[in-house]
Amino acid sequence: MKNTLPTILCIFLSFSVWSQKSEKEKIKDSIQKYFYITGSSFEKYQYIEAIEAANKGITFAHQINDIRNLATLHNDLGLAYNGFSEFTKSKENYLKSLVYAAEENNDTLRCWVYNNLGNIYSEGYKNTDSALYYYKESLKISEKLKDTAEILTPILNIGWTYIDEEKFDTAYPYLVNSEKMIYTKHGDKSAKAQISYLLGRYFLAKENYELADTYYKTAINFAEEEKLLDELTEIYQHYSALAEKQGKPEVAYDRLRKHLKYKDSLFNEIKIKGNQDALVRFSVDEYKKDLERSEIEKRDQQIIIDKTKQISYVLMIAGFILILLLINMFKNYKFRNKALTKLRLKNSELREAKEEAEEQAKLKSQFFSTVSHELRTPLYGVVGLTSLLSEDFPNLKENENFKSLKFSSKYLLSLINNVLQINKIESEGVKLGRIPFNIKSLVSEVVNSFSFALNQNENKVHQKIDPKIPEVLIGDSVRLSQILINLIGNAIKFTESGNIWVELTSVKQENLQHTIQFSIKDDGIGIPKEKQEKVFDKFIQLRPIEKNYQGTGLGLSIVKRLLLLFESDITLKSEHKEGTEFTFDITFEESKEMSIKDTSLPINVIDNIDKKILIVDDNKINQVITKRILQTKGYQCDVAEDGFVALELAKSNEYDLILMDINMPKIDGIETTKRIRLTDKNTPIIALTAVEEDQIKDEIYEAGMNDFIIKPYDLEEFHQIILKSLYVNVI
Asked: Which is the most buried residue in 46, 73, 572, 604, by most CB within 10 A?
């Protein structure tokens, strides 16, 4: 058992020889008397008597606001409750003691109490983290006091706790310091027995059996001199383990017998007997007190009955009322039980429904992830082939059918992205980023992406950006682009031979924070008043009868949800056949950089480059497309249809770049990359994936990849990412 701090503060004050004492002096004498009773009872394991005496002492101490004695008595009361494992009450009294000790500015008592709290959490609650916290608080205070006697106890307890946790290297410095202290005037034989026992356990764990044996023998000598049954029980248990390690089974058996002998002595002769005697005496005393109270009540009742029968009638009536109340309480109890049973049933049903909903949400997320990959992979073939055709046959760029094909593929990709985007938002999978971006370039790029649709509908877009708006802002440019794409796309779709106005106005500036109002206005067909509340719902399309407009009905719903992430909302103004205006405000931070450098390289730089690239992809069409795209720029290409082939090619060849598909049979791109990185740390590896960026980005970088490209991709973007990986120093 670990060291327990001095349990009772026994301070004997000289009694006054005066025949007459003041009331305050009498109270002090009473406090002193109960101090003595508390200490004496605790030493005899008479915990109930100790608790009674301590409580009486606390009552008297409150009468004269004796803070020091309140602090000490609450500490003693905590020790008594801890004696028969009432840990909650013990902790409550230790905490009260700390409050009074702090008020008294008594660091010595605070040191004791923190150590006692550590003992409760270590031995009672088995919470070593909390125990170590309190032991270390005790150590801090004792070091502040510079009292070796106070320092020894928390250091020894910290070392003991780490030994019990088998953190032997952490424990060793504390054990060494404790050993140095115990051979001063402050070290008693009990402490010497304990530190020798702990050092024996340390060297046993470190397989230094000779030193372990020496320390165990020393511990046994001191423990037997002091008759420390707790320590002897534990010492012989571990001493037996040492003999087993040394290959001495007979010696181990003999030591184990001694362990069991001391264990029986400990529990039978001290703990159990002491606690049972205390509880019996407590029960007898309580019975006598109850009997005396019962006799007094009986005499009082007889006197009352003898005095007047009227009181008897009142009592009878009261008894009758009490019976009625009990009957009513019993009915309420039955009703309450039924209600609780129903409530438990409902709670069980709700838990099952919650688990089912969580499972459905998980399946939904998995489904959308699979759909993302399965839809984008063939779409990569379509977009890639159209890009190749436009390069092989430049005249096709002006062909209306070819333009329609490219537009249709981009439109299909937009539909897929919208469906996946709304799912990601609903599953709380979207978080705003913070990167510098050029606001003017962003708006221009969004508008330019609609060039085909603008020409088809014969519309014009007018851009106006307030000069007060900084050129470079910090925020999530990707989500802002999605908002603008949906709103401008809607305006173009529902306007023919008309105008679309995109206007950005600075409405507020505080330090580097700029609030910008975005306005997207058109003179198209407009939205009737009665239908304006529904336009932000999912899958809602307000189509005029005379024309069929394509779309999923998700665009404005996505806009609404994305603006919530920016802590903003959208306002709609519209009249039927008179156009529509959407406005919203977003606050961005001004970037300290004056501008964003253009990090792209001219595409013609990559012509006739003598670079060798390995393409790893299991899809035959994707292999052909990717290889053709690279070969048109002069790259040499090898193709691997799975991860194992890629590993063999990477071992036998030197590549300047590896394009790695993520989803492949046998072993996927992540695992293949990890294996390549075991021997090759330098070759750039770029992931090719049809999965959403947020779902795969962290995993890609952790595997050792340098960058990623989401399928299907724009050719210019594709070449720029490859160039950045090949020529990092050029950019």
From this structure: 73
Residue 11 has pLDDT above 50, yes or no: no
Mean pLDDT, range 657-665, rounded to an integer: 91
The alpha carbon torsion through 232, 235, 239, 241 (nearest 10 deg) reads 120
169 domain-assigned: no
Q: Say if residue 510 is in the same domain as residue 459.
A: yes
Domain-located, residue 235: no
CA distance 467 to 480: 19
Chain segment 298-336, per-residue pLDDT in tens? 566 667 767 777 787 888 898 889 898 889 888 888 888
Closest CA to 239 of 219, 224, 225: 219
Q: Which range, of 27-36, 82-91, 281-290, averages the lowest pLDDT? A: 281-290
Question: Which pLDDT score is estimated for 400?
Answer: 64
The residue type found at 349 is E
Residues constituting the chain: 731
Which one of 410, 429, 448 terminates a domain? 429
> Hey, what amino acid is at 22?
S
DSSP secondary structure code for residue 529 in this structure: G
Nearest to 689 by CA among 666, 709, 715: 709
pLDDT for residue 8:
38
d(CA 624, CA 641): 11
Residue 1 is predicted with a pLDDT of 47
Judgement on whether residues 439 and 560 belong to the same structural domain of the protein: yes
Q: Rounded to whole angstroms, how far apart are CA atoms 538 and 533? A: 12
* Residue from 674, 640, 671 nearest 655 by CA: 640
Taking every pair of C-alpha atoms in the chain, what is the biggest distance, in angstroms? 126
Q: Which string of DSSP letters, residue by residue, matches 582-613?
A: EEEEEEEEEPSSS-----PPPGGGGTT---EE
What Rg do the C-alpha atoms of the chain give, in angstroms? Answer: 42
564 close to 584: Cβ distance less than 8 angstroms? no
Examine residue 712 and say whether the peptide bond preceding it is cis (omega within 30 degrees of 0). Answer: yes
Question: Tokens in use for 76?
Answer: 């003693």
Q: 706 with 610, same domain?
A: yes
Rounded to whole angstroms, the Cα distance separating 504 from 502 reads 7
What is the span of the domain harbouring residue 21?
A: 1-104
Count of domains for the chain: 4
Q: How distant, in Å, are the alpha carbons of 160, 473, 513, 594 from that of 510?
A: 58, 14, 5, 18
- Confidence at residue 617, expressed as pLDDT on a 0 to 100 scale: 92
Give the whole-angstrom CA distance, residue 563 versus residue 220: 74
**Contact in structure between 154 and 117 (CB atoms under 8 Å):** no
* Torsion sign, CA atoms 552, 556, 557, 562: positive
710 SS3 class: strand
Beta bridge partners of 168: none
Helix, strand, or coil here: 123? Answer: helix
